[in-house]
Design brief:
17 helices; mainly alpha
Length: about 375
Amino acid sequence: MLPVFVLGTDQVVDDINELVEMLVPVLDIRVPAKSLDLAGLCLAGTFPPTVLAGLTVTRNVAFETYQNGILCGLLSALVATSLDLDQHWVKCLFAAGLFQDLGIYNFRHLARNKQKSSVDVDSDEHPQIAASVLANIKGLPKDIGMLVRHHHECFDGTGFPDGITEREMIVPVQILVMANQVSRIFLVPKIEQVNIEALIWNLKVDSGVYFKSVIRAIICLLKQFGVKEEKTELMSAKDIRRVLDQIERERVRWSVLLKISGDAQLLPVSPSTEMVRRMIHRLWYFITTSGILDGSLAKWLKNLDYLQEQDGIPLIIDCGNDLLTGGRCLTVALNDCIDAVKSMCRLTDPDYSLPPLVRISNYLAQMENETMVYELDEMSSA
């Protein structure tokens, strides 16, 4: 006899099949039958009434959120299986993915009525709300509530609600965090065109920084699904020099962004200033852990005689591709940070009357001028 926490309704099974049928032609992927068999195993049994009511509300009010939970749960269970976690974690991860956003539309009245609950039901603390209720449902393992609580955490401590880092996350938590991110990317093509082929490429970059075993397992899983990988052509010496020049330009922008970060700390606390702080912190973490701005590799590549050192050419190609990958990520992240800074300035004080905003405005102008100089130099040398 299966335990109570192994969930199941015919409607959820039908919803899983409908979601897979929708994603296959849109993303040009295939979903192995064993994946759906695993979902069937995790869904065998009955839902506790409180959870079933919550899922019903979410399905009716926010169907895409409900679909994301299904896909996140399925991906989590598949990754857990590929990493040889025991069935307890496979089933708990599936359930946690399915339940993770129940606190957005449900359970707030239950959390409010709990005398010992520390949940602020008037703020966006849905992980705590759902976790606190799930932990008190008879028959559900406590690990489900624990997983749900942490599904919005981040490897560098910038997530919520507890701000834990990778070192404090057990592997099942890492799985749920990553599955949640990937499932949202899969559902985006319903609304707008995205480059799914870049997904594996981006995950390979991430796997060198955090959640290494989990992300590599996800990459293998996506390849089984038939997700195509963006092709990376071999790089010439000229291409490598161009990448090194780009990284040098980003080094300048990063130094200016650090100055902006200092002045942003002097502004009144607001969602926009907090967003900038988080984004710059994440970028700092990427730069320090990836070593993308470490000048030693760039110096070695520049000084190497590409034509005479034939044995070094394969290594140069590998290093060049790694630099290109890291350089692209750095450029995108810097652009996002700069856009966030500009938005913060407009929202904080449209007239730019505050002294910190005046300095930030000057820094942005300085950054744009230096970028123009680099572009003109590139055009003249081309």
